[in-house]
Write a structure and sequence with these properties.
The complex is a heterodimer. Chain A is built from 14 helices and two strands, in the order H-H-E-E-H-H-H-H-H-H-H-H-H-H-H-H. By secondary structure, chain A is mainly alpha-helical. Chain A folds into two domains: 74 residues; 258 residues, no CATH class. Chain A is globular, with a radius of gyration of 23 Å. In chain B, 33% of the residues lie in helices and 26% in strands. The chains are: A mainly alpha, B alpha/beta.
């Protein structure tokens, strides 16, 4: 039984692992083209993405901080995908959640524990509402959720941009941003000079909650069954429509939460160009993480580290454009998409090995 | 007679599934004969034929064609050696015409331009030559399954095949189409073609084959002349033990009405009337068979009763209550069970574990969930219990089911549906595609449920099955009940004439269906 489980896990991580290795090999090729030192580049990439210089001076801590919103938008995508909704609306839900938290952060004044709670709940609610729209459109009118969420992403981006430029704009600012939120609404960080804090803990909790929800509750069961086979769900008496709408509500709430944490724990306000593609990165995180909460958690940290390593290490120390970081991630995603390539070859290799062993065994028995 | 194919000592081990699919198999086919290859699901028939066609590479063994040793590493080699394969799932392009499919990759062209006219003429000639009329200009997607199969056969013949391998060709056909196919096979055999016919329906073996080879768990059990064997003997060879071909049934103990359909009408997916104004009842302790050629409204009838689609008119009454507005889940809670026609897509979710498949109709009940959480341990114990009581040896709680054979998958469905003590069971083609051993199991289980007092609506396109299991037969024809018969006194001729849309008055001595008279001979 135990070896069965081990094999299952191995099967699940094999492709992402090989994809990451392939991505790093491609990076080496690109670095050689740039005529930069190969091994040093790798060393710099890792030490600046995942390393620790001294106690309290860890780049890895920054990687964890950057991973926080990615984990949440990744979970958001996991909940939607597992329930058969190919929603890519994380970006929009993230933005409306962030705007909500930023506004309530300065517009109302509450005590230190209550204030963040209210902000978080409000952002999750608004995010859920924004996720509900494509959900209900799909269920009632058959509108493709992919198209609906793309459109809603653009709408959210423009509306939030307008809010930041005009109604929410802080009076004296040169570049548009909202007023700083009340100290009572800010999320605590664990280390001075770092923004790694309560937000990360919330993200870890969310990983556990999403896992338990999807695999241990009735509602999660309904959603996964409806996601895997609508006909089977209908046959068994599961209401797929309810499950789909519920999935979009939860997915939206998680992305909204990501937005709130980014506002409350990192920027303390919302400014123009707030989203740097975190929504979409969440999507790729979910895919590389095998659409599993634990996978999302690991991949989010890995991505953040790679980006940091490229940004701080490669760019500053070796004068290699930091876009290389994004390029590697792009290649990794590409290799995951081409996962069949590995799977087939692995299967073939395994068959060959086992058949050799099988025929040997047979030979002995004769 | 000369030998067309000789396969010697073929072995194939699939390491990923730990299955020795072929173990030192010897197989030889004579020129011009129709050779049936039978065996239960997973016996290794398809692997053997895939080796012959170059789709699977054997670990050992040699193949000779016309006494010449050959290497077949790829389907191209097989085609060069005159071997053609008609797969169970057709390899046709639905949006192309018949002619375009048959001539795919070998179209006549002038300076790179296609000539539709000429293609059609070529296919017309080909069809006439083999006496297999088709409309060359028709699109595949518009053709019935039997006609598509004919196109597949023509495609293989056009590629100069002398040896045709037909992989379970009758699995997808209606009884009429089966009769036509049998005529086609006989005709090709007379023209000198060699035909290998893979099946697990023994009646077809008796009707069409000259010789038959039986496989069981990867080994060749033996080859017999059809004229020197019988269905019971072949069944015994296939399963390895005595098989009950006819189930024994107790006297009917009919109880109250459990389900009643009052003047119901149902539309199909395209909104066309599929069932129009029919009424019937099913009592406790009886099996009512809905017989008929497939496509006469069976699917819609079953989906409407189970609650998957809604009625256009009429009323369904279950245990005394109208269930027109009742959801699938509520109907199931009231004691309705459903063994669907399609176990791969509808009845099971192959992407998830055995446990999760077994609770789909009852995850909501307090036995399997509390405060919204699933009771994982209870569910796993339940799976263990189902596996034991329905002897689904290959299935394990907590593991996936996608690798299970058709028979085992059906056992999972039956196990789930019957373990809730249902008062009414819809069994839609419960033995379709199953081998003899599994059919016996399903039949026995359904009879047991009947004897325990459940009402069963058995939908079957297999006349034999309807006759063997049911107490009453309703014949469905174009969405209406063409007639109702008591099984004990009904004859196959009577059911047959109703299935074809006739009435019992039409029945005369000379309208006896050839198939049944042949069957008599075979049985006696």
């Amino acid at each position: 039984m135990n070896s069965q489980r081990f094999r299952k896990i191995l099967d699940a991580i094999l492709v992402p692992l090989l994809a990451i290795l392939s991505g790093l090999v491609i990076m080496g090729v690109l670095i050689l083209f740039l005529k930069k030192p190969l091994f040093e580049s790798y060393a710099v990439l890792f030490s600046n993405g995942f390393g620790c210089q001294a106690y309290g001076n860890c780049i890895f801590i920054t990687a964890l901080e950057r991973a926080t919103p990615l984990i949440l938008t990744g979970l958001s995508a996991v909940v939607a995908f597992r329930s058969g909704m190919f929603s890519i609306g994380q970006e929009g839900q993230y933005l409306v959640g962030a705007a909500t938290a930023a506004w309530l952060g300065y517009a109302i004044h509450l005590s230190p524990v209550l204030h963040p709670l209210v902000l978080i709940l409000a952002a999750m609610l608004v995010g859920a509402g924004y996720g509900w729209i494509p959900g209900i459109l799909k269920v009632k009118l058959g509108v493709n959720e992919l198209l609906a969420t793309i459109m809603l992403n653009s709408i959210a981006a423009l509306v939030v941009e307008y809010l930041v430029q005009f109604p929410m704009r802080a009076v004296k600012s040169t570049t548009a941003h909202s007023p700083v939120i009340d100290p009572s609404a800010q999320l605590m960080s664990f280390l001075p000079g770092s923004k790694w804090g309560v937000g990360f803990v919330i993200a870890v909790l969310a990983v556990i909650v999403v896992y338990v929800y999807l695999w241990r509750t009735k509602s999660g069961y309904e959603q996964r069954m409806a996601g895997q086979s609508k006909k089977f769900a209908l046959f068994g008496g599961i209401r797929s429509d309810n499950a789909a709408v519920r999935a979009m509500l939860i997915s939206g709430a998680l992305s909204g939460l990501a937005g709130a944490i980014e506002v409350m724990g990192v920027h303390r306000r919302i400014m123009t160009g707030f989203s740097v593609g975190l929504g979409f990165d969440g999507l790729t995180t979910a895919i590389l993480g095998q659409v599993h909460p634990i996978g999302v958690f690991i991949v989010a940290i890995l991505f953040s580290g790679l980006k940091l390593g490229a940004q701080i290490g490669l760019q500053l120390k070796l004068d290699i454009p930091r876009e290389l970081g994004g390029t590697i991630i792009g290649f990794i995603i590409l290799f995951v998409a081409a996962g069949k390539l590995y799977e087939e070859n692995i299967m073939r290799a395994r068959d060959w090995l086992l058949s050799r062993r099988g025929s040997k065994l047979k030979g002995e028995s004769h | 007679m000369t030998v067309a194919i000789e396969m010697k000592g073929m072995s194939k081990y699939f390491a990923s599934t730990h299955v020795r699919a072929n173990d030192e198999v010897d197989f030889s086919v004579e020129k011009g004969e129709v050779h049936a290859l039978v065996g239960e699901n997973g016996a290794g028939k398809t692997t053997l034929m895939s080796i012959l066609y170059g789709l699977v590479k054997p670990d050992s063994g040699e193949i000779s064609i016309d006494s010449q040793k050959v290497r077949i590493d790829h389907p191209d080699d097989a085609i060069k050696n005159g071997i053609g394969m008609v797969h169970q799932h057709f390899k046709l392009i639905p949006s192309f015409t018949v002619a375009q499919n048959i001539l795919l990759g070998m179209e006549p062209n002038q300076a790179g331009f296609l000539n539709q006219q000429k293609e059609n003429e070529l296919v017309e000639q080909l069809a006439n030559r083999y006496n297999l009329p088709v409309d060359p200009a028709a699109r595949i997607r518009d053709l019935p399954v039997g006609m598509q199969q004919r196109v597949e056969i023509l495609k293989v013949l056009e590629r100069n095949a002398k040896i045709l391998v037909l992989d379970e060709p009758t699995a997808v056909l209606t009884p009429q189409e089966v009769n036509e196919l049998i005529t086609v096979i006989r005709g090709l055999s007379k023209m000198g073609y060699t035909i290998i016919f893979i099946t697990h329906k023994l009646i077809e073996v008796m009707l069409v084959a000259d010789r038959v080879s039986v496989m069981r768990s990867g080994r060749m059990v033996g080859t017999k002349k059809v004229s020197e064997t019988s269905i019971p003997e072949l069944a015994r060879m296939m399963v390895g033990r005595e098989v009950l071909l006819r189930v024994k049934k107790k006297e009917i103990q009919r109880g109250e009405v459990v389900l009643e359909a009052r003047n119901i009408s149902v539309s199909d997916v395209n909104g066309l009337a599929a069932i129009s104004h029919i009424s019937f009842e099913v009592h406790q302790g009886e099996i009512v068979a809905v017989a008929g050629v497939s496509g006469n409204g069976q699917t819609e009838l079953v989906e409407a009763i189970s609650g998957m689609i809604s009625l256009d008119g009429g009323e369904i009454i279950f245990r005394g209550k109208s269930i027109n507005e009742t959801s699938v889940g509520q109907r199931r809670d009231m004691g309705m069970a459903h063994i669907p026609e399609d176990r791969m897509v509808v009845g099971l979710n192959l992407q998830t574990t055995l446990d999760e498949n077994l609770i789909v109709s009852r995850y909501n009940h307090s036995e399997f969930s509390r405060y919204g959480f699933l009771l994982m341990k209870t569910i796993s114990e339940f799976a263990e219990k189902v596996v034991k009581s329905f002897s689904i040896s290959a299935a394990h709680p907590g593991e996936g089911i996608s690798m299970l054979s058709g028979g085992n998958l059906q056992k999972v469905v039956v196990g789930r549906e019957l373990s809730g003590n249902p008062s009414f069971i819809i069994a839609n083609q419960p033995t379709r595609g199953l081998d003899v051993g599994s059919i016996e199991f399903v039949h026995k289980t359904l009879i047991e449920e009947r004897d325990k007092g459940a009402g069963i609506l058995l939908v079957s396109v297999e006349l034999d099955e309807a006759m063997a299991l049911s107490d009453r037969i309703l014949v469905l024809y174009r969405g209406k009940i063409q007639g109702e018969l008591k099984t004990a006194t009904a004859t196959e001729e009577e059911v047959g004439i109703l299935m074809a849309g006739g009435t019992l008055d039409d029945l005369k001595e000379d309208t006896r269906d050839a198939r049944h008279s042949i069957k008599r001979e075979v049985d006696s």
